[in-house]
Specification:
Length: 113
């Protein structure tokens, strides 16, 4: 069965950088055949999309993170990454990885303070 395991979260100062990872397993096809995305949920707020990969390799970003965050993947390592730069306190949230918006990881906490 499909599993996604996020890691790399932590505490970072405003203006700092962090890279979170999502290790994927159990896919039927190669990673390049799937859409992947990163979502986040802050306390008291709804889950929101942050960045995504289309099947054609195209990327999309939420307006609030465009120019600061970069989604990437390493198919050989079965891993999707989210590089986050110029972090702000508003970026504090639990970050989730998803594929096909049907399978979700347990999340990794990012705190900017």
């Amino acid at each position: 069965h499909v599993q996604l395991v996020e890691s790399g979260g932590g505490l970072v100062q405003p203006g700092g950088s962090l890279r979170v990872s999502c290790l994927v397993s159990g896919l039927t096809y190669t990673m390049s055949e799937y859409r992947f995305g990163w979502f986040r949920q802050a306390p008291g707020k709804e889950r929101e999309g942050v960045a995504a990969f289309g099947r054609d390799g195209s990327t999309s970003y939420a307006g609030s993170v465009k120019g600061r965050f970069t989604i990437s993947r390493d198919n050989a390592k079965d891993t999707v990454y989210l590089q986050m730069n110029s972090l702000q306190s508003d970026d504090t949230a639990l970050y989730y990885c998803t594929t096909a918006w049907s399978y979700w990881g347990q999340g990794t906490q990012v705190t900017v303070s």
